[in-house]
Amino acid sequence: MKTSLKNTTSDDSLIIYAELNDAEIRAAQRRLKTGELTRIVPGVLSASPEKDWPAIVALHRIRLLAALFPGAVIGFRSAFKGGIPVDGVIHLSYSYNRKVELPGLKVILVKGHPQVSGDQPMSGRNLYFPSPARMLMENLTASRGAIKKSMGRTAVEERLVSIHESRGPETLNRIRDEAHHLAPILGFNKEFQVLNELIGTILGTKNAQLGTAAGKALAAGTPFDATRLALFETLAAVLRVMPVAAKVSPTITETARINFAFLESYFSNFIEGTEFDVSEARQIVLEGKIIDQRPKDSHDILGVFRQGISPGWANQSMAIGEAVLHQLRQRHADLLKERPEASPGDFINPAIIALNLLY
After folding, report:
1. Are 109 and 100 in contact (CB under 8 A)?
2. Cα distances (angstroms) measured from residue 122 to each of 7, 288, 320
3. What is the DSSP letter of 316?
4. How far is CA 197 from CA 135, 159, 190, 200, 206, in A?
5. With bands split at pLDDT 50, 70 and 90, how would you rate the model's confidence at 218?
6. Sheet arrangement for strand 44-46
7. Is the pLDDT of residue 223 over 80?
8. CA–CA gap between residue 324 and residue 96 (Å, rounded)
9. Which among 162, 152, 229, 149 is positioned nearest to 199, based on CA atoms?
10. Contact, 105 vs 61, CB < 8 A?
11. What is the pLDDT of residues 139-166, one digit of tens each?
C-alpha cells in the first residue's frame, strides 16, 4: 500500500513516485511539465534548486534508497562502517549489478541474496542492515576495481578482536554459528572457512595466521587493549610537555595527617569491599586492635593507614622507567604482607607493561 506524500514529507524538496498513489503521481508529472518540479533521477522529483540536492539526498538517504531499491541490504564496506557512505559511495546487495549516480552519492549495487534471517529493517522501511555474520563474510569476499567493496581479512580480524574484548567469546561463538547457517544460503562457504579459522584462532581452538598485533597477542594468551594503549601514549605525550604545579600538602599538622591517613585507609578499603564500622576502623588504626574474626581485613586497613601516616611513604615521589615498578612492588609488598596468598610485591597481570608507556 502506497503512502500519501503528505505523510512522508512536509514540502516538495523530495517527491518519490514509489510513495504516491496514481492520482498524486499524475499531479506531480503535471508540475514537472510546467517546470515547477525538476527530475533528480527517474521517479524522484524536487522543487528545490539543484545545488541543494546533495544535502536533500543525504538527509533522506534511507528513505530514498528504500524507495529506489526496495528490499536491498546495506552491504560490504558500507555495512562494516555502520551504513554510512564512505567517500560518497554506498554498497547495496540487490537483485542485479549496477552503479547509480545520485546527487552527492554513488550507489553500487552488487548482485546478491535479499534479506535473510538476522537482517534488520532500517527506520522501518524496506531497506535492511545485515547481521554481523553476513557483514563479516561479505567483507572477506574478493574485491576488485578502483572502489573496493570489501574491507578485507585484516579489518575483519580487527573487528573480531574488538568484539571479543567488548562482548566476550560467547558473542564470537554466536556469530560463528550464525555464519555457519547463512554461508550456504548466501554462497559464502569459502568466506565462512576463513571466518571460522579467524574466530577459532582468537579463541585458542585453531591455529590460523593472524595479521594484527592485537590478534596475535590475544591468540597467544597475552591480550592487550590497543585503544587503551593509544590513550596511554597520548597521556604520556601530554605529561612530558605540560608543566605540572607542585601541590602543597594539605596535612601540615599531626592531627591533619592522622585524619587524612584514616580517611584514605577507610574509604580505599571500603570501595574494595572491606567494610568496617567506623569505630572498629578507628580502633584498628589508632589502638592497633586487630579484629579477631577478621585479622587479614584488619591488616588491610592498618597497612594503608601506615603508608598514609608515614612521611617516607606519604611523601614519596614516583620514579621513572623501571624504578617505578620497583616502587609499586615495595608498596604492594608492605600493604599485603599479611596476605601471602595475594603474592605481595608481585604483578599478576602482564598488562602492567603498559605502565611503562607513561615514562
Report:
1. yes
2. 18, 66, 52
3. P
4. 17, 14, 11, 5, 6
5. low
6. 15-16, 44-46, 38-41
7. no
8. 63
9. 162
10. yes
11. 999 888 778 899 999 999 989 988 988 8
**Angle at alpha carbon of residue 226, lines to 220 and 230, rounded to 5°:** 150
Q: Whole-angstrom Cα distance, residue 139 to residue 333?
A: 50
Distance of alpha carbon 342 from the chain centroid: 33
Phi, psi (5° rounding) for residue 207?
-140, 55
Nearest to 66 by CA among 114, 7, 18, 117: 18
Cβ distance 319 to 359 under 8 Å? Answer: no
On whether the pTM is more than 0.90, the answer is: no
User: Would you state the cell numbers that stand for residue 242, as one nine-digit string?
Assistant: 605540560
Cell digits for 143? Answer: 574485491
pLDDT score of 357 more than 50: no
Q: Which amino acid is at 195?
A: L
The percentage of residues in the chain with a pLDDT greater than 90, rounded to a whole number, is 46
Considering only CA atoms, which of 150, 137, 142 is closest in space to residue 199?
137
Q: What is the pLDDT of residues 4-31, one digit of tens each?
A: 434 444 479 999 999 999 999 999 999 9
Give the model's confidence band at 220: pLDDT under 50 very low, under 70 low, under 90 confident, else very high. Answer: low
Among all chains, which residue has been given the C-alpha cell 564496506? Answer: 77
Q: At residue 164, what is the residue type?
A: H
d(C-alpha 93, C-alpha 343), whole Å:
56
The mean pLDDT of 294-320, rounded to a whole number, is: 83
Distance CA 5, CA 25 (A): 10
What is the domain partition of the chain in residue ranges? Answer: 1-59, 70-130, 153-223, 229-358
In this prediction, residue 122 carries a pLDDT of 94
Q: Helix, strand or coil for residue 15?
A: strand
104: left (phi over 0), alpha (psi -120 to 50) or beta: left
Asked if 121 contacts 65 with a C-beta cutoff of 8 angstroms, the reply is: no
What's the half-sphere exposure (Cβ side, CA atoms, 13 Å) at 198?
Answer: 32
Q: Which of 272, 236, 251, 277 is nearest to 359 (CA)?
A: 236
pLDDT at residue number 327: 85
**pLDDT at res. 78:** 95
